[in-house]
Amino acid sequence: TVKKIGDNAFYGCRNLKEVILSDGIVVIGKYSFFNCDSLTSITIPGSVIYIDEYAFHLCYKLEEVIIMDGVLSLRKSVFGNCESLRKVYLSNTLTSIGEEAFHYCRKLEEIDIPMSVESLGTMAFANCDSLTSIVIPDSVKVMGVSVFSSCDSLVNAKIGAGLTGLSERIFEFCTNLKNIDLGNKITYIGAYSFQNCGINSI
Questions:
Q1: DSSP readout, 53-84?
Q2: pLDDT tens column, 136-160
C-alpha cells in the first residue's frame, strides 16, 4: 500500500485526468501534482495528515476538491491558481489553511471553513473573485495578512470571537464588501484592512 507520494511525483503530467488516492496514504508531497492541468476532481482520503506545498498548484481544470475528515493541514499554495475550482469540501479535522492555499481560485463561490480551523495563512483566499460571503469561525485564533484581499465579489463577512484583531490588508480591495460583522472581541484593526472597500457601515 502506498504511504507517501513524494515531491514532484507527477509534476507536469498534463494528460492525467483521474487520480484515485487510496486510504492509507499519509503524506502528499510538494509539487506532487503541480500543473496536472487535465485533472478535474480529487478526493483526499482521511489517512493523509497534510498536503504539502504546491501539491495541486496550477491544476487549471480542477473543479472539485473533497478533503475527508482526518486531514489536519493544507500547506502553502496547495490549490493556488486552480482557476476552475468551484466546489471545496474541507475536513472537519483541519486545523490550518496555509498561505495562498486557494489564491487565485477565481471561480470559487463559497467556502465553509470548519470549526476545527485555528489559523489562516497570508493570502489564503486572496483574489477569489467569485467568493460572495465568508464566515470566520470562533476557532480561528491566528490570521496572516491579506487573507481575503481583492475578492471582488465579496459582499458579506463575519469575524469569529476567536480573533481580537484584524490583520493588515485582510479585506483590501474587496470593492463590493458592504456588510462586515466584527463581533465584540476585536480590539484593533490593522493597516489597510478595508482599503478601497465598499462598506456602508461598521
A1: TTTTTT-TT--EEEE-TT--EE-TTTTTT-TT
A2: 999 999 999 999 999 999 999 999 9
pTM (predicted TM-score) = 0.96
Per residue in 2-20, pLDDT (tens digit) is 999 999 999 999 999 999 9
State the number of CA atoms in the 13 A half-sphere of 151 facing the CB: 32
Helix (H, G, I), strand (E, B) or coil at 89: strand
Grid look-up 462598506 returns 199
The alpha carbon torsion through 131, 136, 140, 145 (nearest 10 deg) reads 50
For the segment 67-89, the average pLDDT, to the nearest whole number, is 98
Pairwise CA distance, residues 160 & 175, whole Å: 22
Residues in contact with 36: Cβ distance below 8 Å, sequence separation at least 6, in sequence order = 10, 12, 13, 14, 16, 19, 56, 59
